[in-house]
Amino acid sequence: MAFQGARVPLNWWQRAAVVAGSAVGAALNPARADLVAALGETTGGFAFQRMLERMERSPEGQRILAERPRVTSSAMSRAWDLPPNTFGAAYAQFMGSRNFSPDDRPPVRFLESEQLAYVATRAREVHDFWHVLFSLPTSVMGELALKALEFQQTTMPMCFLSVAGASWRLKPHQRDALFREFIPWAFKAGNSATDLMCVYYEQHLDEDLEDVRSKWGIIPAPALRKK
To answer: pTM (2 decimals)?
Structure first.
């Protein structure tokens, strides 16, 4: 599998500079996917290693590592033709209604091991599947709730730092709901779900959305209240 862009080796002080700069930038603007990605790569080495080890122990995870599927617009094109009750159709509606393209994800740059770089790429590319499965919007509140769930599933420091650093952007009542309602939900849902990095999502697109939620132990998020 070919990765876009060149991976960039960093010494300790360069890594520290990237961590500091991306952490501040991502807290100020959580929509900066490149900064969030850089923070994840430079702080998540141990977490990516643990994800890799879990995938190597899982039959479905082993197939993912062997075949290295990519979530790209061409690979996902058939989702737009699936029946409306299916997981794939829900994904297509989610992406299409927001004018998102799976090709817009920034490439992995700061992980030198190709195997870990693929795991990081996979984690990045299945993020939108998780939005669909857990019924979370792409608002700041929705992203932070999903980051809390991702932390429960992956232990990536970036997920914790994103919640801690960007929650200040919420209105007081939203911040209160995040910590009283959505973070407890995230830890319960993350613990209930199967290991989401070991799911070959592309092979389940034509299955009923509620069936895959049940099969994978998915607990959808509480509805976001509009105020």
So the answer is: 0.86
Does 56 appear as a known binding residue? no
Using alpha carbons, select from 181, 186, 156, 155 the residue that is nearest to residue 170: 181
Closest to 52 measured CA to CA, from 72, 66, 32: 66
The residues, ordered by sequence, that sit 6+ positions from 50 with a Cβ below 8 Å of its Cβ are 155
Query: Does 34 belong to an annotated binding site?
Result: no
Cβ atoms within 10 Å, residue 68: 15
C-beta of residue 18 within 8 angstroms of C-beta of residue 38: yes
Q: Is 204 annotated as a binding residue?
A: no
226 CB burial (10 A radius; 0-12, 13-18, 19+): exposed
Q: Which residues does 22 contact at the CB level (< 8 Å), separation at least 6?
A: 35, 36, 38, 39, 42
If you search the block for the tokens 């709901």, which residue do you land on?
177
Is 127 within any annotated ligand binding site?
A: yes
* Contact of 151 with 12, CB cutoff 8 Å: no
Q: What is the pLDDT of residues 28-71, one digit of tens each?
A: 555 566 656 666 566 667 899 999 999 999 999 999 999 999 99
